[in-house]
Amino acid sequence: MQIAGRTIFITGGGGGIGAGMAQAFAEQGGRIILADIDAGFAEAEAAKLPAGTEAMALPIDVTSRDSWAQAKAAAEARFGPVDILCNNAGIASGFAPLIDMDPADFDRLVAVNLTGVYNGIACFARAMVDRGAGHIVNTSSMNGLNPFGLFAAYSASKFGVLGLSDSLRQELAPHGVGVSTLFPGLTRSRMSQSDTVGPGAMDPARLAQIRANMMEPIWLGRAVVRAVEQDQPYIITHPEYRDDLARRFDTILAAFGEPAQPGYRTGASATGR
Ligand SMILES: NC(=O)c1ccc[n+]([C@@H]2O[C@H](COP(=O)([O-])OP(=O)(O)OC[C@H]3O[C@@H](n4cnc5c(N)ncnc54)[C@H](O)[C@@H]3O)[C@@H](O)[C@H]2O)c1
What we know:
InterPro entries: KR_dom, NAD(P)-bd_dom_sf, Sc_DH/Rdtase_CS, SDR_fam
Catalytic activity: 2,5-dichlorocyclohexa-2,5-dien-1,4-diol + NAD(+) = 2,5-dichlorohydroquinone + NADH + H(+)
GO molecular function: oxidoreductase activity
Helix content: 40-55%
Keywords: Oxidoreductase
Shape: globular
Family: Belongs to the short-chain dehydrogenases/reductases (SDR) family.
Number of domains: 1
CATH topology: Rossmann fold
Bound molecules: nicotinamide-adenine-dinucleotide
CATH architecture: 3-Layer(aba) Sandwich
């Protein structure tokens, strides 16, 4: 899908990566809606878009379906139907063993990071199918491909985004609607600069060095634009994580040995015990 003249709705648009997407879509002539639970953040990022960009900032709580309905109505009143939906809002929890996590924090994390993505799809995808065109970009994480210890709830929510996105891509492809999943590694944003996110219990000097070398969000945004233009399923922006992921997949593939039930699928197992 070409971007010029399209309407793009971005959640977490007041944050680092959402704002990077907004900038990149604006570079290509898109009309931008920045939606965020902090409307002030969204307004500040809308003001930074290139001169001449048609843009609006909206409040939204992605966990609330009423809030989605209100934001959709406001967006369509200004720009008409939304062509591209970026479900990008997300939160992190502090590094801690899962068994020490407050259950309410687990519920909140899944509500924002996973159910929030579903809510966006439930709000906008039917109209895209009816028009026979559209694209949905869901933000997962490298944690959604390769989980880091002490980050279990976040990883679970981001694995959920991948499963949901891959299934949805199969369902919507026959209707002319694309689905892509973004898997950021460390990228400069409020989340990644906070004390709750980073590569784990690490020497502070090493952590400071990593944070000083984070990717700038505009480059993720440009990768997202390319994925929408070319209908790519996966958006990998940080190739340095490849070897870790290959090791994980090798371990999974190595578990594919003989069937647990001898004779399974050979016709010899019907009465086997
Ligand atoms: N920055 C990274 O290193 C990194 C790495 C992997 C994945 N991610 C993912 O990228 C996405 C964007 O994060 P970011 O790094 O730009 O962080 P960020 O904190 O700068 O932006 C996230 C935005 O989401 C908004 N938000 C939070 N809860 C919301 C809700 N209920 N409804 C609507 N908006 C809400 C916040 O106000 C914030 O502006 C998230 O899904 C995050 O999990 C980030």
